[in-house]
Specification:
- The chain is built from 14 helices and nine strands.
- The chain has two domains: 7-154, Rossmann fold (3-Layer(aba) Sandwich); 164-303, Rossmann fold, CATH 3.40.50.10490.
- The strands form two sheets. Strands 2-1-3-4-5 form a five-stranded parallel sheet, with helices on both faces. Strands 7-6-8-9 form a four-stranded parallel sheet, with helices on both faces.
- With 330 residues, it is α/β, with parallel strands linked by helices.
- The termini are far apart.
- The structure holds fructose -6-phosphate.
- The site of fructose -6-phosphate has 15 residues, from α4.
């Protein structure tokens, strides 16, 4: 199964290129701009919100918030843009935020590969991008991220996106496979702890999620500088079969190098992912998401688990469906 499923990662360059050419339906924007942007979505779709939030910190003068829940915060009003992302288009938490945003008169934008979200977009004239169907959300990351940035551009919010250098990196699948094999080496039977700085937290979260969903193991995320104020102490007498995976930007990342050296001194196995500084932020997030994804597939293969099936998520979603009067339900 890994053999077939891996194809959904090795075609990321083509998927990104295809999404770049996709038409934005119902293009419109709010006169006078926005007071803020709320990006709503869960799991493999929601991670795009984390990336946009970090981009916003560096490039926008309005707040970007990430909502991974049924409800949007009270302060999100009609002068806000609510961008909702759901690969299936049927995730209840995300649909609930869309409903709430419509009720509050917010401007809306949405992405899915179909489902109820597409229907809502067509019915209510929501600015919309449809991405390729037939994949799983986590393997559609380039489409969801490129699509989200396209929607924001239509809304007048310009953020730096995937560059030609980034596209080319996604096409260098032999390099990505090699880096993934190095990362996966020795991980079998161990719990990966992803450690990053705040700017790269989407990668750490993505790493955890990929090992959860593809490899079927629990995993943990730690972010610096906050790490230095609590988690650091836990390593004084750490327990369990842990392996730390530390994301460093280039060879001179003093903060992350400190973390890697400290963790090594604690005796835990440490893997350093030294990221290419010459890639822009979106390029880097996508390329290293590819590497982590491929590593999670490799360990899934070694464990003999099917990476494509996430039956517990299906179980959770059926529970939500059967729960009458859940949060977000009028
Ligand atoms: C990732 C995955 C989940 C979903 C999440 C939300 O591959 O399967 O994390 O992304 O359950 O579903 P969608 O993305 O369809 O809104």
């Amino acid at each position: 199964m890994t053999e077939g499923f891996i194809g959904f990662y090795l075609d990321w360059k083509e998927l990104a290129e295809q999404t770049m050419k996709t038409e934005v339906e119902n293009p419109s924007r709010r006169e006078g701009g926005y007071a803020g942007i709320a990006v709503t979505g869960m799991g493999g779709s929601g991670i795009v919100g984390d990336v946009i939030q970090v981009l916003g910190w560096e490039h926008l003068s309005i707040p970007v918030i990430v909502v991974k829940d049924f409800n949007i915060p009270k302060f999100v009003g009609k002068e806000w843009l609510v961008l909702s992302i759901s690969y299936s288009g049927n995730t209840l938490e995300t649909l609930s935020t869309v409903k709430e945003a419509m009720e509050r008169g917010c401007d809306l934008a949405a992405i899915s590969s179909g489902g109820k979200l597409e229907e809502l977009a067509h019915e209510h004239g929501i600015t919309y991008v449809k991405v390729e169907s037939g994949r799983v959300p986590r393997a559609s990351m380039p489409a969801l991220l490129v699509g989200a940035l396209k929607l924001l551009e239509v809304k007048g919010v310009k953020l730096p996106g995937l560059s030609s250098k980034g596209l080319e990196a996604l096409g260098r699948t032999d390099d990505a496979l090699k880096e993934a094999a190095d990362l996966a080496d020795g991980l079998l039977g161990r719990i990966p702890v992803f450690v990053s700085d705040t700017k790269h937290y989407p990668l750490a979260v993505r790493g955890k999620n990929e090992f959860n969903e593809n490899t079927k193991i629990v995993s943990k995320v730690e972010i610096l500088p906050e790490w230095g104020h609590n988690d650091i102490v836990g390593w004084e007498k750490w327990l369990g079969p842990l392996t730390a995976i530390v994301f460093e930007l280039g060879g001179n990342d003093r903060l992350m190098k400190f973390a890697a050296d400290y963790l090594k001194e604690s005796g835990v196995p440490v893997k350093e992912v030294v990221m290419d500084e010459s890639l822009n932020y979106v390029d880097r997030v996508l390329y290293y998401s590819l590497v982590i994804g491929l590593a999670s597939l490799k360990v899934a293969g070694e464990r003999g688990v099917d990476p494509s099936i996430t039956k517990s998520i299906v179980k959770y979603k059926s529970f939500l469906k059967s729960w009458k009067g859940r949060p977000g339900e009028a």
